[in-house]
């Protein structure tokens, strides 16, 4: 009844020739339409459908021109096609549960709505609902890939074990927020968003000793996305060899985590163990910042990063009176650029001298 008579039951603001009416008709049409995988209510849950309706109404209010078509049926079909396409996409990824599916779809609808004018200028021939699918598909694939990082007992690896549905959607939100500031990421045919999400997840999986919390990892993800947006294809698609899946940022972060984890495993929380928690988080952020510069040496010799971290930690252990956690960060920041670019390892004497520079 609502699908066919929105104006009668909801008022003239929801008539067939309005954006609000188009969203409402489309939603109820898709709820009652059952395809091979069921209706959208089966995929997104009842609460999820409400969340999608909120996102659609918000878009209709802010950008009613997006629903402009040659006739009223075209307006409704735009949103209906989007909903059915999103439901079909999520059926391919059963590891992503109902609340996450709906929230991710709603976030993408809202993000595309905010950037619609810029997106239309970048590609005026591309309908906005296609852009939603172009963003949602790689983001979904990236998050699904994140959940494939499992141990033999089927539990998630490393810091991913912290990630419940709220953290998972927050990771998606962080990536979307940056993509909204960089509309080219949304309009791109390259699945850059998928590379970034799956790359960050791979790095999280390397945190076997849980040296960072979920919130700290989300902060690192924010820096990673920001740097990746400013350097297309560099952080999460620049590897040592073209045929390797490994990405530069993942290699670098994993190297740091490997040394930090080995140090923690051998000593636990004892005197001289410095690279964990807030110190480790800031070091990882600094490493991501450095990836925007010269990385020629580390591409040729990936082992440089581990050698550098070991030098820094050895210096801290040998001179605890001169070098605590702040000293580790000072040294890291001072030499990371030359290590990555030129391959110059500072040595213990140079490390200690830099603290009084």
- What is the count of DSSP helices, taking H or I runs of 4+ residues? 17
* pLDDT < 50 stretches: 239-243
Biggest sheet descriptor: none
Beginning-to-end CA distance, first to last residue: 76 Å
Order of helices and strands: HHHHHHHHHHHHHHHHH
- Range of helix content: 55-70%
The averaged pLDDT comes out at 81
Overall shape: it is elongated
Report the sheet-strand fraction.
Answer: under 5%
What kind of oligomer do you see? single chain
How many whole angstroms does the radius of gyration measure?
24 Å
Strand pairing plus helix content: what structural class? Answer: mainly alpha
Number of beta-strand segments: 0
Short description:
The chain has 357 residues and is mostly helical. It is 66% helix and 0% strand. The longest helix is centred in the N-terminal third of the chain and has 25 residues, at 98-122.
Write up what this structure looks like.
The protein is mainly α and about 350 residues long. It is about 65% helix and about 0% strand. The protein contains 17 helices and no strands. The chain has helices at about 5-10, 20-30, 40-45, 45-60, 70-90, 100-120, 130-145, 165-180, 185, 190-205, 215-230, 250-265, 275-290, 295-300, 305-320, 325-340, 350-355. It starts with 5 loop residues before the first helix and ends with a helix.
């Amino acid at each position: 009844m609502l699908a066919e008579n929105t104006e009668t039951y909801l008022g003239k603001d929801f008539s067939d020739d309005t954006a609000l009416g188009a969203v409402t008709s489309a939603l109820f049409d898709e709820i009652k339409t059952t395809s091979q995988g069921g209706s959208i209510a089966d995929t997104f849950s009842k609460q999820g459908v409400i969340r999608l309706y909120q996102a659609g109404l918000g878009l209709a209010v802010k950008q009613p021109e997006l629903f402009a078509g040659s006739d009223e049926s075209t307006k409704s079909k735009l949103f209906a096609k989007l909903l059915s396409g999103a439901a079909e996409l999520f059926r391919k990824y059963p590891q992503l549960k109902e609340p996450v599916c709906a929230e991710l779809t709603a976030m993408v609808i809202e993000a595309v709505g905010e950037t619609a004018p810029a997106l239309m200028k970048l590609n005026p021939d591309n309908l906005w609902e296609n852009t939603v699918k172009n963003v949602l598909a790689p983001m979904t694939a990236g998050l699904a890939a994140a959940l494939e990082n499992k141990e033999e007992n089927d539990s998630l690896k490393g810091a991913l074990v912290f990630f419940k549905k709220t953290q998972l959607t927050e990771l998606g939100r962080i990536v979307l927020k940056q993509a909204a500031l960089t509309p080219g990421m949304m309009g791109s045919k390259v699945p850059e968003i998928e590379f970034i999400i799956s790359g960050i997840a791979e790095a999280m999986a390397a945190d076997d000793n849980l040296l960072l919390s979920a919130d700290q990892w989300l902060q690192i993800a924010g820096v990673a996305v920001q740097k990746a947006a400013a350097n297309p294809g560099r952080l999460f698609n620049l590897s040592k060899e073209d045929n390797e899946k490994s990405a530069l940022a993942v290699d670098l972060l994993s190297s740091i985590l490997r040394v930090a984890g080995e140090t923690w495993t051998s000593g636990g929380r004892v005197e001289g163990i410095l690279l964990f928690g807030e110190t480790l988080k800031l070091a990882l952020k600094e490493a991501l910042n450095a990836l925007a510069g010269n990385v020629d040496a580390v591409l040729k010799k990936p082992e440089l990063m581990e050698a550098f971290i070991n030098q820094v930690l050895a210096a801290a252990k040998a001179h605890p009176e001169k070098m605590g956690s702040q000293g580790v960060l000072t040294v890291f920041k001072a030499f990371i650029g030359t290590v990555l670019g030129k391959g110059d390892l500072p040595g213990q004497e140079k490390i200690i001298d830099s603290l009084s520079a």
